């Protein structure tokens, strides 16, 4: 007993019933700054007066001893007896009595807790400060005893959800039970991550049901501040911040970023997300899906003639029609303008898909009622299939676009499926586009001239300038192949200008040599009409060369007239004012509207080759050509028949009063020198055609 007393790591003592110190173990001696028990006992007389910084503590100690006969966990600040340094201690003591119950002596232990007490104290203080700070910042504070489920919520914490102080119990379930079901799992996960030490701070955003049954978004943050011996959390404190407004703003931004405002459909960005999801689904369950590009035909005309508001109405209605013809799991997105994209999932049967696409076409071809007007548009569809045609979003888009191009080219109001040949053609176009870039500088172009014969006199009255590209590797590349590339890349602007200048120089020479009224016609692409660059007007350039404006006829297609914006009309008017003739190419293949002919003061129409090709006595095409000629003459226009290949065709054209003929029967397009030889040869046979 004595030795245990002696070697106890905490202080131990015995004092007499009167309170005189009788024994002190080594720890207690050392704690008081003495070197031996004897020295200490000699220095101390009565225990009572010795230690407590606050003398009241001694009285409290004695009172407890009086009532219970013992004291435990008694924490006080004391002086080390010898050095008068202050320390915090925890003591326990009891009275040892004889059989009659009178006190023999007291024994007690004393533990130096200065270090742990100081940290606890500062923790409590900072906690209080923190709670105060949080409450005043508008955040609610919670203090959760994890294992018992008790939880204290600050006044503000209850206010956030519209509750009075007393309306929320001090239990964890009181708020946890109001968490949105969709958020509960993530909240649990975030808590566990913090409990396990994976995250230094707990952080979770969730919705809480308010008193008025609305939902509030809160950000909850917290830390575990006490754990049991096994490391399990005992107590956790944290805050709730109301983030409802931020969430609403975020949701708004998200909607704007992902949906089209006009139609409410997913936009390009959302489509990509949906398509990526759909692709990975299709991959895992091994099904097909279709990506369909939809483009409204003639939308631009509605917009131009009826105004943007009508155009918007049409788009909204079109969006609804497309949506109605699809299944619930399919996606319709608006890509911008009049372009839509569909993602059709679970394509099992190609025939079923075609029926569905046909359904879209039929819906779009029905009349649209826009306020007082009824308009008709149609749609063109391009289809690419996963995984048959492509497996990536990029390639599916590209292929659907190529197919759409085909659908439009084939006359619109139809669908076209992607084929590998399309891809090959597209690749070819890409290579050509790259080569075309250097063609002008590389002097790879040549302008050839095809004679146009006055059918009444048999004289070569004019010529059409046609472009040739001598590709260094491929040889001669047909304009049919490269003009559209030059148009879509914008290169047609420079190329077209160059052709014009060649033709202008040529016509100057030939007017001197053959006929002062000789005329060369030059094809002008719609793209050139939309370009507002700083090039001098063609008429201006002609005048500068001392030429009459009428030396050049500008050949345009109906497309130019259809897209008759103010800029195009001005451009045409400027050409006419400068004296240039306007010639309408490929007549009969497009809209063939008489009103256009008059409105834009066209001089010449060129009957398309497709009519001339099938000319025969009593054929419908003969009747058609005759009608065109009569009508044109009525309007004061002259007529050129293109693609005259046979004597019979020529004779029939003369018979129905056509003014001019152009075609292989007379001559193929010729280089400038060959053209001159041709002219010389004809001069010899004078006037015989
Ligand atoms: P286009 O303006 O309709 O030109 C007439 C086309 O018919 C020319 O084809 C010509 O060679 C061809 N042709 C002439 N007579 C006959 C015939 O008797 N039978 C047949 N089967 N064809 C005949 P080319 O030169 O291949 O030009 C094709 C198209 O390329 C032109 O059609 C025109 O749209 C475009 N093009 C040609 N040169 C230019 C140019 O400098 N600028 C622009 N923008 N387009 C051009
Ligand atoms: Ca032409
Ligand atoms: Ca033509």
Q: Supply the helix-strand structural class.
A: alpha+beta
* Beta strands, count: 26
Ligand names? ligand C2E, calcium ion
Q: What is the beta-strand fraction?
A: 25-35%
* Uncertain parts: none
Helix percent band: 40-55%
**What does the radius of gyration come to?**
48 Å
Largest sheet: 8 strands, mixed, barrel
Overall 3D shape: rod-shaped
Q: For the terminal residues, how far apart are their CA atoms? A: 144 Å
| Contiguous helical run count | 26
Strand order in space, largest sheet: 18-19-21-22-23-24-25-26
Overall mean pLDDT stands at 90
Description of the molecule:
- There is one protein chain.
- This protein is an alpha+beta fold.
- It contains 26 helices and 26 strands.
- The strands form five sheets. Strands 18-19-21-22-23-24-25-26 form an eight-stranded mixed beta barrel, surrounded by four helices. It has a five-stranded antiparallel sheet with strand order 2-1-5-4-3, with helices on both faces. Strands 7-6-10-9-8 form a five-stranded antiparallel sheet, sandwiched between helices.
- Helix 15 (420-436) packs across helix 16.
- The longest helix is centred in the first third of the chain and has 24 residues, at 114-137.
- The model has no long low-confidence stretch (mean pLDDT 90).
- The protein binds ligand C2E and calcium ion (2 copies).
- One calcium ion binds next to strand 23.
């Amino acid at each position: 007993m004595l030795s245990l007393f002696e070697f106890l790591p905490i202080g131990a003592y015995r004092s007499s019933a009167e309170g005189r110190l009788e024994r002190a173990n080594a720890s207690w001696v050392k704690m008081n700054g003495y070197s031996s028990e004897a020295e200490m006992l000699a220095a101390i007389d009565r225990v009572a007066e010795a230690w407590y910084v606050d003398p009241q503590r001694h009285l409290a100690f004695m009172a407890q001893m009086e009532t219970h006969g013992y004291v435990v966990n008694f924490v006080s600040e004391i002086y080390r007896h010898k050095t008068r340094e202050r320390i915090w201690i925890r003591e326990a003591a009891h009275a040892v009595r004889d059989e009659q119950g009178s006190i023999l002596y007291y024994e007690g232990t004393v533990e130096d807790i200065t270090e742990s007490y100081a940290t606890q104290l500062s923790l409590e203080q900072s906690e209080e400060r923190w709670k105060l700070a949080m409450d005043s910042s508008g955040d609610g504070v919670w203090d959760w005893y994890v294992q018992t489920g008790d939880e204290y919520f600050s006044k503000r914490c209850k206010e956030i959800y519209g509750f009075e102080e007393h309306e929320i119990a001090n239990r964890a379930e009181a708020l946890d039970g109001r968490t949105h079901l969709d958020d509960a799992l993530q909240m649990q996960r975030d808590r566990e991550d913090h409990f396990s030490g994976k995250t230094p701070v707990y952080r979770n955003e969730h919705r809480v049901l308010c008193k008025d049954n609305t939902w509030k978004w809160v950000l909850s943050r917290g830390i575990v501040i006490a754990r049991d011996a096994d490391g399990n959390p005992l107590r956790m404190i944290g805050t709730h911040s109301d983030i409802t407004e931020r969430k609403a703003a975020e949701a708004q931004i998200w909607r704007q970023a992902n949906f089209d405002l006009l139609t409410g459909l997913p936009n390009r960005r959302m489509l990509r997300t949906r398509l990526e999801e759909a692709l990975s689904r299709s991959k895992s369950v091994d099904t097909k899906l279709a990506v369909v590009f939809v483009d409204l035909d003639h939308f631009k005309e509605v917009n131009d003639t009826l105004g943007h508001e009508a155009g918007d109405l049409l788009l909204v209605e079109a969006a609804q029609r497309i949506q109605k013809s699809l299944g619930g799991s399919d996606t319709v997105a608006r890509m911008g303008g009049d372009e839509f994209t569909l993602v059709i999932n679970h394509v099992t049967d190609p025939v079923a898909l075609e029926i569905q696409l046909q359904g879209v076409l039929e819906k779009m071809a029905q009349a649209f009622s826009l306020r007082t007007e009824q308009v008709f548009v149609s749609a063109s569809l391009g289809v690419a299939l996963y995984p048959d045609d492509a497996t990536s979003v990029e390639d599916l888009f590209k292929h659907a676009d190529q197919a759409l191009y085909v659908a439009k080219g084939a006359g619109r109001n139809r669908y076209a499926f992607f084929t590998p040949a399309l891809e090959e053609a597209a690749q070819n176009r890409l290579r050509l586009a790259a080569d075309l870039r250097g063609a002008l500088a590389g002097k790879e172009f040549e302008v050839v001239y095809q004679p146009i014969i006055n059918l009444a006199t048999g004289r070569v009255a004019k010529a059409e300038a046609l472009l040739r590209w001598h590709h260094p590797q491929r040889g001669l590349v047909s304009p049919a192949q490269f003009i559209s590339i030059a148009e879509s890349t914008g290169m047609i602007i420079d190329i077209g200008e160059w052709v014009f200048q060649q033709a202008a120089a040529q016509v100057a020479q030939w007017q001197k040599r053959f006929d002062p009224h000789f005329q060369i016609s030059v094809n002008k692409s719609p793209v050139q009409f939309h370009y507002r660059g700083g090039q001098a007007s063609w008429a201006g350039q002609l005048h500068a060369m001392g030429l009459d404006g009428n030396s050049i006829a500008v050949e345009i297609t109906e497309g130019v007239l259809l897209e008759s914006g103010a800029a195009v009309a001005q451009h045409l008017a400027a050409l006419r004012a400068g004296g240039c003739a306007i010639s309408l190419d490929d007549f009969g293949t497009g809209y063939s509207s008489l009103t256009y002919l008059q409105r834009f003061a066209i001089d010449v129409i060129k009957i398309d080759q497709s009519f001339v090709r099938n000319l025969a006595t009593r054929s419908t095409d003969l009747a058609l050509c005759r009608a065109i000629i009569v009508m044109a003459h009525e309007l004061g226009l002259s007529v050129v028949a293109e693609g005259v290949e046979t004597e019979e065709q020529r004779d029939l054209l003369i018979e129905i009063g056509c003014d001019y003929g152009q075609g292989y029967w007379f001559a193929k397009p010729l280089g400038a020198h060959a053209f001159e030889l041709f002219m010389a040869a004809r001069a010899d046979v004078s006037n015989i055609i």
